[in-house]
Write a structure and sequence with these properties.
The protein is mainly α. The chain folds into two domains: 7-113; 163-363, no CATH class. Helices cover 63% and strands 0% of the residues. Helix 6 packs antiparallel against helix 7. Bound molecules: zinc ion (ZN) (2 copies). One zinc ion binds at residues 230, 241, 285, 305, 309.
Amino acid sequence: MMPTISISDAIGRRAGLSSALLGALCIVAELCFLLPDLLVTRDALPFYKAHIALCRGILQASIFATFALGALGAVCARTSRYGLTGLGFGIVAMLMGGAQAEAIHAGGMRSWAAGLDYFVLELLVLGLVFIPAEALFRLRRQKVLRQGWQTDLKHFFVSHAGVQLLSFAALLPAQMLFSWAVQLDFQKAIAAQPLWLQFVEMIAVVDLATYWIHRAFHQIPWLWRFHAIHHSSQQMDWLAGSRIHPVDAILTRAVAFIPVFVLGFAPAALYAYLVFVSFHAVFIHANLRWRFPGLRWAISTPQYHHWHHASDAEGIDKNFAQFLPVWDLLFGTVHLPHGWPKHYGVEHFQPPETYLGQLVYPLRSPGGMHSPLS
Ligand SMILES: [Zn+2]
Ligand SMILES: [Zn+2]
């Protein structure tokens, strides 16, 4: 009898938790439907308008799933807290207009808008892909809501909701400092190549540029203070990669954009690249045991990047490349044994677990922080 009860409880808890998380996302999505001028990414608005039936359908299905999972959680789990929370969120989403919510155009279009739509869609898609994948193929046994998940979710929220601001800050240095290097004829020749070739070229040149800024973040003490926040996660999963200090994110993107700006790749190749790398960046942090034996020296895999996050001595300052291990091979920083690291995190300090604490920590505690090489 006992195993039946615990299986039912486990299913109920997972259903309740899924309902609460999905219900919270539905409420944020409702806000996007109600206040698109304030909360929806400018560039994406025409796409949503052209596919409004699809958007409403996804919202409708999500609210339905929130209620169904919430009911399952409330009935099956020993503690019905998550299930009832999910049901409550579902009711709030319905009261906000459900799938028929109409936009309130109060102040007209602004030049800046929060990217709340980007946050909701990315979290929905990534959660749907990675939470089940990590449950089925996990490397380590750990909870979905492991230590620090709320902090990482706040990092995820800020980097997605503030995407327009972050992108603007990251594009500025290339435009201000490297206009002299732009050759229009050369850019036309680059953009005229097949898209797949531009995609491959972009991976190679951006990866080379980010290899060096990433290495600088490890070797220059004042830069390490910011990057150490990314390394402070002691448990790896799909959300852990979001833990990036905004200074780290802006500087890395600014350097990454320099070759893209100078070479002038076609926008379609750039968008394909951005979608691909944003997914790949999540993937390499995931709690997945897949080793990809035939590919692991060709592209960065979870095992490759987990070694970059290792606090084991053999993994310190290794595997800087985001995508292509060839750069670590060439510059002598590769480390890819058969096994996995024992421990993750940073050796000499532990930043606070709160989001604001992590934001100000690099500015306040220079004495207590050391680069791994210093
Ligand atoms: Zn690093
Ligand atoms: Zn990482």
